[in-house]
Amino acid sequence: MRIPTRIAITLTHSASAASNHNRSCYSTCRAVLVPSFGGPEVLQLHPNVQVPPLKPNEVLVRSRAVSINPLDTRMRSGYGRSLFEPLLPIILGRDVSGEVAAVGASVRSVSIGQEVFGALHPTAVRGTYTDYAILPEDEITPKPSSLSHVEASAIPFAALTAWRALKSTARITEGQRILVVGGGGAVGFAAIQIAVATGCHVATTCGGQSIERLSAAGAEQAVDYITEDVEVAIKGKFDAVLDTIGVPETERMGINFLKQGGHYMTLQGEAASLADRFGLAIGLPAAKVAELQKQIRYRYSHGIDYSWTYMRADIEGLIEIRKLCEAGKLKIPVDKTYPITQVREAHEAKDKKLIPGKVVLELD
Fold this sequence. Notes:
This protein is an alpha/beta fold. It has helices spanning 70-77, 81-84, 149-153, 156-169, 186-198, 211-216, 230-233, 248-256, 271-278, 280-301, 315-326, 343-351, and strands at 28-34, 44-50, 58-68, 90-91, 95-103, 115-119, 132-136, 140-142, 177-181, 201-206, 221-224, 238-243, 258-266, 305-308, 334-339, 358-362. The longest helix is centred in the C-terminal third of the chain and has 22 residues, at 280-301. The two termini are 34 Å apart.
């Protein structure tokens, strides 16, 4: 886990806008702040929040669209408290699509005015719910020209999470069998498309309303976990299982579906929850021990590899994701958009599960 450093988020009463290739002269902008943990009502859209100076490897992005990820609503509610509470207020948001407004002195891969998209790592304190987001150069890439900013903003964080599991951890190859537990969410849906593009045979579990969409994305079998017995409906063994649900029952099922030497990967690692419970000094080492114990247990009992998987910055992966988008092989549908001024309403809709799919905030 990357440990963030404290940043200064101070309010001012003036704004300026100018930039050059080596530094940002944008002084203030709008941003959604989280001054304390709680429900959607804690979100505060401030008109004049300081834009920090750019480091040499950083890029200032004029945000046009930012998507809401489950991590955003969980962080707002206090997930990762041990890490983020001393740093409040924080700015939520990981995904962004927009234009380059300024670049640090060492940045060479993008230029001012270029349309880009990307995602911040999970522990970033200054997120993307702001007119001007700051990302390291290795966390953005040119936006696929075939996608709008709204469409592009829905992709990077979810796709990079899936990419890390399937490509970096399991190292999937053509012809392998892959099971995605919970394919209806953004990470699961991205994983299906990445695996299909690799030439794998994909099965998935999902709600009945998602079966048609996942089958159209290339899943050879999509099983409604509510109306069917998954362990009866799905036949054979798999080379890798990505479990986006991560409860004990899906863990048991996923591991039993694996071949010898297969990979089980869950999104529901315990690092943040244990750190929140016991503090960073005790919680993070305890999480390492907990993961290691499971790795040893399943290696000896089932002959498989077990791992918690998280999104990590991966510029090579992001470039490949862009190529898949450009080829029409990867897309995450957006169910609804809100203006950034209605961020509370957007979070409330996600909390109440009124909108099952992706929600995107637009910044004019």
